[in-house]
Write a structure and sequence with these properties.
By secondary structure, this protein is of the alpha+beta class. The chain has twelve helices and four strands. Helix 2 packs antiparallel against helix 6 and helix 3 packs across helix 4.
Length: about 300
């Protein structure tokens, strides 16, 4: 096989990869764009600090004038060279895409003139919301924006433990260190913005995956299971159980469904099986057929 054929084959594989994940391409692009707007419109014009690699980039912007797009790109290239081999090809590919896209957007949006707000607290909230939505959209695809996400993923694989606290402490260190460059008051606004980013990111991640885990203890399990299958179009699992107090034999119907389906099932049970015992709890994440697909992990 000639070199030209090899390049053509690799190019074809890349095209197939991205065509097969068009939704990831769209969501990652929109998320990266929103995050870039949050930085260029609500962080840099107000001399606010930031967290993670972008926090280092904006400090260098304030002190020696380096463009955040260049600093962020260079830092992420080094991080991916350091730990890229230990990460999945999909994670690395989409991280590279998002890093390049964010750097491009930061460069393009840098020259725009944005409306100036007088309320700094409102600026911190608005910036945090916009960046949080962007981050949440990207994280939902199973990719990342680079930076500390790469460090966390590599250390989790190497050490076999969760290292979220390390990321938290590193971000706190960057924000506290920024006080010497932006002042104590704006450092506090930076803390507010970072907190909002985290909360909104979590909300975006969970809002699309809201599921209820339902347990129904009953003596008519097949009737309830049939209703769930025919009318709610969900599967269910029958668990044989016995009462700890009464000693009676029962069957527990276990099912995962969205909040609307849960309300429909509650009304049905109230009318047809009032003696059933029902427990509803939130399921933070559901993987498998009919829910989130494994390939996004």
């Amino acid at each position: 096989m000639t070199r030209k054929q090899q390049i053509k084959r690799i190019k074809h594989r890349i095209e197939l990869f991205y065509l097969g994940e068009w939704s990831t391409l769209l969501i990652s692009t929109i998320g990266s764009f929103l995050y870039s707007i949050g930085v260029t419109a609500f962080t840099l014009p107000y001399h606010f600090p930031d967290s993670g690699v972008m926090g280092v980039a904006v400090i260098l912007k304030y002190t020696i004038g380096l463009a955040p797009s260049i600093v962020s790109l260079a830092a992420n290239v080094m991080l991916l060279l350091w730990g890229g081999r230990e990460l999945s090809k999909r994670f690395v590919a989409w991280t590279i895409y998002n890093v390049l896209l964010i750097s491009l957007f930061l460069q393009m949006l840098d020259g725009f003139t944005y409306p100036i707000l007088q309320d700094m607290f409102l600026v911190a909230i608005a910036g945090g919301v916009i960046k949080g939505i962007g981050c949440g959209m990207v994280f939902r695809t199973g990719a990342s924006m680079g930076g500390l996400d790469v460090v966390v993923a590599v250390l989790r694989k190497r050490l076999g433990v969760e290292v979220g606290q390390m990321s938290f402490y590193f971000n706190m260190f960057i924000l506290i260190a920024s006080a010497g460059f932006v002042g104590f008051e704006k450092m506090l606004y930076g803390f507010v913005a970072s907190y909002v980013v985290g909360q909104v990111t979590d909300s975006v991640l969970t809002s699309f995956d809201k599921r209820r885990l339902v347990f129904i203890v009953t003596q008519q399990p097949h009737e309830i299971s049939e209703y769930i299958t025919l009318y709610l179009h969900r599967g269910s699992t029958l668990l044989h159980s016995s009462g700890g107090y009464s000693g009676g034999n029962y069957t527990t119907v276990m099912c995962l469904m969205n909040p609307r389906q849960t309300m429909v099932l509650k009304r049905h049970l109230a009318q047809t099986h009032p003696r059933a015992f029902m427990v509803i709890t939130d399921a933070s994440e559901v993987l498998g057929n009919g829910f989130k697909r494994w390939k996004h992990i």
